[in-house]
Design brief:
458 residues; mainly alpha
C-alpha cells in the first residue's frame, strides 16, 4: 500500500479532514483573491467605470474555472477512487487524459472568444462607455486562459495525490505575485486595466512552475503516461465533473443576469454597486468550494475503498463546517458592510448607500449556501451525479433566475439583492423536507453499503 493510502485509511477522521480543509480553503481563497485584487487595484488606481468594466469581464474567470473544475473534479474523483482500489496505472492514465482534455477544450474556447470578444462583452452587459475597459482586460485574460486552467487542474490532482500543502503554496505564490505585479503595472507603470490583466496572467505562469515541482517527489504517484483517450473514461470524467461545471458556469450566468437586471431597474449605480458585492461573493463562494475540494479526495478514496463508516463522519464534518462558515460570513457582512465598501476606494454617495444596503441583504444567502453546496459536492464525490446536479440547478437556475426578475418588478430595485438568499433558502428547505425520500439511497440487502444522507439537520 502506498504512502497516500496509508494516511487516508489510518488518520483519525477529524485530523484528516482538517489537514485537507485548511490548505484547500487557503488555496481557494488565494485563487479568489486574484480576482478581488484586480478589482481593488483597478477601482483605486483607475476609477469606478474601470471597475464596472472589469466586473463585466469577470464571467470569463467563471467560465475558465468551470471547465477546470468540471474536468479536474471529475478526473480527480476517478483518480482517488482508483487509488482506493490500489489501481495506480489507471489513476495515472485518468490524470493524463484529464489534463490534455482540459487543455484542448479551453484552447479551442479561447480562440473562439478572442474572435468574438466584442460581441461577448456586450452580451455580458457592457455599454459603450464601459466597453474599452472590458476589451483591454478581457483580451489579455483570454490569452493566459490555458495557463489559468492548467494551474487549477494541477492543484486539484496534486491535492488528490496527498500533497494539499503544495497545492496551497502554488496558489499562494500566484496570489502574492499578482498583488505585486498589479501594484507595479497599475500604479508605477500606469498601464490601467491592462496592468491588472497582465499581473494576473504572469503570476499564474509562475504558480504553475511551483506546482510542477510535485512531479519530482519520490512518493508522487501522479505521472503523465502515454496519452490515449478512452471513451469510457472521458465520458465518466465529464459526467462526474458536471456538477462542478454547473456551479461555476451558473456563477457566470448569475453575474451576467445581475448586471442586466441592475442596469434595467437601477442603472449604472446598481451595476457599480453589484461589482463591489460580486468581488466579495467570488471570495466567499470559493470558501465553500474549498470545503468540497477538501472533502472530494477523502470521500472519493473512502468510497473506492468501501470504508463507509468513516465516509459518514466526513459528511457530518463537511456539513457542520459549511454551516459555520455561512454564519460567520453573514455576521461579517451585517456588521462591517461599510468597511467592505471602503476597500474599493471612494464612491459617490448614492453608490455607497446602495452597496451597503446590498451587502446586508445579499449576505443572508450565505446562511444557506454552505449547507447546499456541501451536499452537492459530497454526492458528486461518490458519483451520485443526478442528486448533486438537482441541488445545484435548483438553487442557481430554477429558483434564482425567475426571482431575479420578479422581485424588482413587484417590490422595486432594492429587492434585486434578495434573489440570491431566497433561492438558497428555498433550496435548503427543500433538502430538509426531502430527508425521508433520500433514505431511498440505503442499499439493498446483499449489496455493498453506500453512505446515506443522515446528518444533523438534514
Amino acid at each position: 500500500m502506498n504512502e497516500t493510502s496509508e494516511i487516508l485509511r489510518n488518520t483519525p477522521t477529524k485530523k484528516l479532514f482538517v489537514s485537507y480543509l485548511i490548505p484547500s480553503i487557503i488555496g481557494m481563497l488565494l485563487m479568489a483573491i486574484n480576482i478581488l485584487v484586480d478589482g481593488i487595484f483597478v477601482s483605486n488606481g483607475v476609477g469606478p467605470e474601470a471597475l464596472a468594466g472589469v466586473n463585466i469581464a469577470v464571467p470569463i474567470f467563471s467560465i475558465l474555472l468551470s471547465i477546470s473544475l468540471w474536468i479536474g473534479m471529475g478526473g480527480a474523483t476517478l483518480y482517488s477512487i482508483a487509488l482506493g482500489q490500489n489501481n495506480l496505472k489507471k489513476a495515472q492514465s485518468i490524470f493524463t487524459q484529464s489534463f490534455f482534455l482540459a487543455t484542448f477544450i479551453v484552447g479551442t474556447l479561447v480562440v473562439l472568444l478572442l474572435w468574438k470578444q466584442k460581441e461577448i462583452a456586450y452580451l455580458f452587459g457592457a455599454s459603450d462607455e464601459i466597453f474599452p475597459y472590458v476589451k483591454d482586460y478581457l483580451q489579455i485574460i483570454l490569452i493566459f486562459g490555458v495557463v489559468y486552467v492548467i494551474e487549477n487542474i494541477l492543484s486539484i490532482f496534486i491535492r488528490n495525490d496527498g500533497n494539499p500543502k503544495l497545492a496551497m503554496i502554488g496558489l499562494g505564490v500566484t496570489s502574492v505575485l499578482n498583488i505585486v505585479f498589479n501594484y507595479i503595472f497599475i500604479f508605477m507603470m500606469d498601464m490601467g486595466v491592462k496592468g491588472a490583466a497582465y499581473g494576473t496572467g504572469l503570476a499564474t505562469v509562475i504558480g504553475v512552475l511551483v506546482l510542477l515541482t510535485h512531479f519530482f517527489r519520490k512518493s508522487s504517484i501522479l505521472k503523465f503516461t502515454k496519452l490515449k483517450f478512452e471513451t469510457k473514461i472521458v465520458s465518466e470524467i465529464l459526467k462526474i465533473g458536471l456538477p462542478s461545471f454547473i456551479v461555476e458556469a451558473s456563477a457566470a450566468v448569475t453575474i451576467i443576469a445581475y448586471n442586466i437586471t441592475f442596469m434595467h431597474f437601477v442603472g449604472a449605480v446598481g451595476v457599480t454597486a453589484y461589482a463591489v458585492v460580486n468581488y466579495m461573493h467570488a471570495v466567499f463562494l470559493m470558501l465553500f468550494i474549498g470545503i468540497g475540494a477538501a472533502l472530494q479526495p477523502i470521500v472519493s478514496y473512502h468510497y473506492g475503498a468501501k470504508l463507509y463508516d468513516r465516509l459518514q463522519q466526513f459528511l457530518k464534518l463537511g456539513v457542520i463546517t459549511g454551516i459555520l462558515f455561512g454564519i460567520c460570513i453573514w455576521f461579517v457582512g451585517w456588521q462591517f458592510s461599510g468597511s467592505i465598501v471602503a476597500l474599493f476606494g471612494e464612491m459617490p454617495a448614492d453608490v455607497l448607500a446602495y452597496t451597503t444596503k446590498g451587502i446586508m441583504l445579499f449576505f443572508i444567502g450565505y446562511l444557506f449556501l454552505g449547507y447546499n453546496l456541501v451536499y452537492a459536492e459530497y454526492y458528486q464525490a461518490i458519483k451520485k451525479i443526478k442528486l448533486s446536479s438537482v441541488i445545484i440547478v435548483t438553487r442557481s437556475i430554477v429558483l434564482f433566475l425567475p426571482l431575479l426578475w420578479l422581485l424588482p418588478t413587484y417590490f422595486g430595485g432594492d429587492a434585486i439583492w434578495l434573489a440570491f438568499p431566497i433561492a438558497e433558502g428555498l433550496t435548503a428547505i427543500g433538502l430538509i423536507i426531502a430527508r425521508n425520500r433520500l433514505q431511498a439511497l440505503k442499499p439493498l440487502k446483499n449489496k455493498p453499503a453506500e453512505p446515506v444522507l443522515n446528518v444533523p439537520g438534514a
